[in-house]
C-alpha cells in the first residue's frame, strides 16, 4: 500500500469517527445544544493530537532517537508547576487560575522562558552535547515535579480542588475555552515545521552529515525546541499531560509509512494521532460507557510498546 493511500485511509477514518462523535443522538430539538458542546470538544482533540504528534516527531529527529519525546525535557512537569504556583500565589479562585486565556498565556511564556534557559546552557560552548541538554531536562523535570508535590501537600483543600483538573490527562472534559485561541497558534507552529521538512530530512541522517550538507545545526535545534515547547503547552493546556502518546504515534507512523521525508511524516503522524484519539475517545464513551479513560489506555499500550522497542533494540 502506497503512502498516499495509507494517509487517505487515516484521514477517512478520522472523518468517520468525527461524524460519529458529532452526529449520533442529534435530533431537531437538541442539535443546537449538542453541536455547541461537541464541535469544540472534537476540535480540541484534533488540535491536541496534531500538537503532540508533530512536536514528538520533530524532537525525535533532532535527537536521532525514537524513544525520546518533549516530555523528557520536563515540559509537562513545568506546566504542572506553573499551575501550582499560580494557585499558591494568587489563589484557586483568582483571575490567573480561573481565566483560561490568561492561564494559558502564562503557561506558554513559562515554557518558552524555560526553553530559553536551556538553550543558554546548550549554546554556551561551541561543541555542547545534546545529550547533556537532555539530561539537564530530565533532572529539572524531576525537580519541578518534586516542588509541585511539596506545595500540593501544603495546599488548602479548596485550592487543591481547583487545581486537580489540570493534574491528569482528560479527554472527557477537555478545555474547550482555549480551542479558538490555541488553533491559530497550532497552525503557525505547524507551518513553520512543514517549511523545515527538508532540513529535518537531512538532520535525521546525523549531526555530522547535516553540517557537511550545509545545515545550521544549532539554529535548527533551537527552533525545533522552541516549537516543541509551544506545541506541548498547547496540548497540555487542552487535555493535560500524556506520557506515552507521542512515543506511540510517531513510532507507529515511522514503521507503517517507511518514509524518511518529513513532508509525508508530519501529515501522516498528525492523521494517525487524530484518528487514534477520536476513535479511542468514541470507544470510551459509546462502548465502555466511561468505564475507563483514554489516558489510562494510552499509557498502558504506550508503556508496553516502549518496552518492546527496548527489547527489539529499535531505539535509534
CATH architecture: Orthogonal Bundle
What fold name stands as the CATH topology?
A: ABC transporter involved in vitamin B12 uptake, BtuC
First CA to last CA: what distance?
25 Å
Q: Given this structure, which CATH class is correct?
A: Mainly Alpha
* Computed CA radius of gyration, to the nearest angstrom: 20 Å
Q: What general form does the structure show?
A: globular
Give the overall pLDDT as a whole number. 80
Secondary structure: number of strands: 0
Notes on the structure:
This protein is an all-alpha fold and 316 residues long. It has a single domain (3-311), classed as ABC transporter involved in vitamin B12 uptake, BtuC. The protein has 14 helices and no strands. The protein has helices spanning 3-23, 31-63, 75-90, 95-98, 100-122, 130-154, 157-164, 179-195, 197-203, 207-212, 217-239, 245-257, 262-286, 294-311. Helix 2 runs antiparallel to helix 11, helix 2 packs across helix 12 (245-257) and helix 8 runs antiparallel to helix 11. The longest helix has 33 residues, at 31-63. The protein is globular and about 65 Å long. The chain starts with a helix and ends in a 5-residue tail after the last helix.
Amino acid at each position: 500500500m502506497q503512502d498516499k493511500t495509507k494517509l487517505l485511509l487515516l484521514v477517512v477514518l478520522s472523518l468517520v469517527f468525527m461524524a460519529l462523535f458529532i452526529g449520533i443522538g442529534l435530533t431537531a430539538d437538541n442539535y443546537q445544544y449538542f453541536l455547541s458542546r461537541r464541535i469544540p470538544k472534537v476540535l480540541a482533540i484534533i488540535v491536541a493530537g496534531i500538537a503532540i504528534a508533530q512536536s514528538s516527531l520533530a524532537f525525535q529527529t533532532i535527537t536521532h532517537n525514537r524513544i525520546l519525546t518533549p516530555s523528557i525535557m520536563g515540559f509537562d512537569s513545568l506546566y504542572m508547576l506553573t499551575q501550582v504556583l499560580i494557585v499558591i500565589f494568587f489563589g484557586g479562585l483568582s483571575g490567573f487560575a480561573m481565566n483560561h486565556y490568561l492561564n494559558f498565556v502564562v503557561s506558554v511564556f513559562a515554557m518558552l522562558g524555560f526553553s530559553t534557559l536551556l538553550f543558554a546552557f546548550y549554546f554556551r560552548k561551541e561543541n555542547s552535547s545534546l545529550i547533556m541538554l537532555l539530561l539537564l531536562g530530565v533532572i529539572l523535570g524531576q525537580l519541578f515535579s518534586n516542588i509541585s508535590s511539596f506545595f500540593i501537600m501544603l495546599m488548602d483543600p479548596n485550592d487543591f480542588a481547583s487545581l486537580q483538573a489540570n493534574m491528569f490527562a482528560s479527554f472527557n472534559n477537555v478545555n474547550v475555552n482555549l480551542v479558538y485561541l490555541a488553533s491559530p497558534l497550532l497552525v503557525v507552529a505547524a507551518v513553520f515545521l512543514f517549511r523545515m521538512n527538508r532540513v529535518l530530512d537531512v538532520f535525521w541522517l546525523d549531526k555530522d552529515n547535516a553540517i557537511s550538507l550545509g545545515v545550521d545545526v544549532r539554529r535548527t535545534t533551537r527552533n525545533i525546541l522552541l516549537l516543541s515547547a509551544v506545541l506541548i503547552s498547547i496540548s497540555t493546556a487542552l487535555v493535560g499531560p500524556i506520557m506515552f502518546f507521542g512515543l506511540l504515534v510517531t513510532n507507529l507512523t515511522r514503521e507503517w509509512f517507511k518514509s524518511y521525508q518529513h513532508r509525508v511524516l508530519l501529515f501522516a503522524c498528525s492523521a494517525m494521532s487524530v484518528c487514534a484519539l477520536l476513535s479511542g475517545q468514541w470507544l470510551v464513551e459509546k462502548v465502555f460507557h466511561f468505564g475507563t479513560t483514554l489516558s489510562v489506555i494510552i499509557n498502558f499500550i504506550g508503556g508496553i510498546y516502549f518496552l518492546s522497542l527496548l527489547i527489539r533494540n529499535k531505539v535509534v
